[in-house]
Amino acid sequence: xxxxxxxxxxxxxxxxxxxxxxxxxxxxxxxxxxxxxxxxxxxxxxxxxxxxxxxxxxxxxxxxxxxxxxxxxxxxxxxxxxxxxxxxxxxxxxxxxxxxxxxxxxxxxxxxxxxxxxxxxxxxxxxxxxxxxxxxxxxxxxxxxxxxxxxxxxxxxxxxxxxxxxxxxxxxxxxxxxxxxxxxxxxxxxxxxxxxxxxxxxxxxxxxxxxxxxxxxxxxxxxxxxxxxxxxxxxxxxxxxxxxxxxxxxxxxxxxxxxxxxxxxxxxxxxxxxxxxxxxxxxxxxxxxxxxx
Amino acid sequence: xxxxxxxxxxxxxxxxxxxxxxxxxxxxxxxxxxxxxxxxxxxxxxxxxxxxxxxxxxxxxxxxxxxxxxxxxxxxxxxxxxxxxxxxxxxxxxxxxxxxxxxxxxxxxxxxxxxxxxxxxxxxxxxxxxxxxxxxxxxxxxxxxxxxxxxxxxxxxxxxxxxxxxxxxxxxxxxxxxxxxxxxxxxxxxxxxxxxxxxxxxxxxxxxxxxxxxxxxxxxxxxxxxxxxxxxxxxxxxxxxxxxxxxxxxxxxxxxxxxxxxxxxxxxxxxxxxxxxxxxxxxxxxxxxxxxxxxxx
Lengths: 293, 297
Prior knowledge:
The structure holds two protein chains of two kinds.
Chain A: H1 5-18, H2 26-30, H3 33-41, H4 47-51, H5 68-79, H6 86-97, H7 104-108, H8 115-128, H9 142-146, H10 153-168, H11 188-193, H12 211-215, H13 225-229, H14 233-242, H15 245-250, H16 252-255, H17 262-266, H18 273-292
Helix pairs in contact in A: 1-3, 6-8
Chain B: E1 2-6, H1 10-14, H2 16-28, E2 32-35, H3 51-67, E3 71-74, H4 77-92, H5 94-104, E4 117-119, H6 120-128, H7 130-136, E5 140-141, E6 145-148, H8 152-155, H9 158-161, H10 171-177, E7 182-183, H11 202-218, E8 223-226, H12 229-246, E9 254-256, H13 257-264, H14 269-272, E10 288-289
Parallel strand pairs in B: 1-2, 1-3, 3-4, 6-7, 6-8, 8-9
Antiparallel strand pairs in B: 5-10
Helix pairs in contact in B: 2-13, 3-4, 4-5, 6-7, 6-10, 11-12
């Protein structure tokens, strides 16, 4: 459903004139001339959204920037210099990050806007601005990893470090030097929150045999796993049972889990270890989002 | 035999050769495929972020297939594991099903649990069958030692995925051996490829990948064989980066199973897209031999 040639030429010409108003803003200065024109050429027809691979995620994560047609509108607002708060910036970042880089939006756009490249560009701009987002600690980062050579090493690492720091900042108990925990940190709300599905209700039957930790390839990769990873899988199951949110969220183990399901497969008590880790990550993402902004 | 082919997000843009080679071998073996354009992300990366977002994504795909009364075949093991997980959860919980269907009904969809999700390897082994594959083979490999990489999300959690024996699987080995190649035993064959952490913790991801590659080489394998886009991208594109960064002297090239089988079936190498693999795997063709035709009588 591409537009006719003459219509497209006309649109582009109009876009060229109009796009000059974008060139003063921070976002506008960082986009290419073509991209500024593309911003103006968007007719908000929502073809991209109708074909987007992750549009349905909007039903679970109520952030309108997940939808490509709304993302591009937000970016247009950013480029036109409208003052935008930190919270909105974070939402735009989440929107551009929750993208599988499948290029379907670019393929279907009737005006020929390379939308996928917009997401990639804006993602990097916002990350470098220091907007925190835990989405970078998910497999949505795989493609960013494949394109690693295109970003300077420091710029590449920065958002990953920032995300871990954003979690650590919310996990005070992890910072206790004497490692003696108060007896009453049980957060019942946290514990009862681990029931998104039947998959992760069973952490409390863990009897501490450490099989999960023994078979974990990530644990096995380190000489001193606790130093690198914080709590190990069996300890995270305990932390969940005791309601020690900070210890569960703040352990690198949670974010360095491969989800290879070795632990869950081997658990003699039938604890869904990997699924519990998945749910803990879900809760942490929500918790940090609420706390930070 | 007819399936809705679930390609996922990686294959159409980053691993076209997996699509073309799979379609070619399946056509040769008489497996019918239907493309459903409306399919979306399986939900795999969303599982780390938000449970419901993952479930809705997965369920929408299942509902689309159910509407067409088709079973789903995936080429990706992460898609496979995710769709199986969602299917399992939805069959288990009526309340989740209700919630999901309330969302799906807005676009005229429903999921009642009628769809079977199968992975390419399972279809080839269980539905096409080793004997039928062998009958179609025109050339066999001789002296080719392959390390078959099973992939985590196909094998585990076994209660959910029901792919093969999770501790001692054999279907991939049998499929590799059907081409005449030798499937070598290697201690780390059931370990993770490292891809889930690529982009998140690259050093750790590289450590794990490198261990597997070294184990495969030490076990005498000349090639890795995989059936998942994430595993292949990790063993191919990422291995190239590992070689550069960690000073590894020689690679262990990865070949996709339909490429391996396709060579044996005599399918055009352009369609199999061997050249599109980043680490050259074309040397494998030298090990193909024409069958010896015995005189009648």
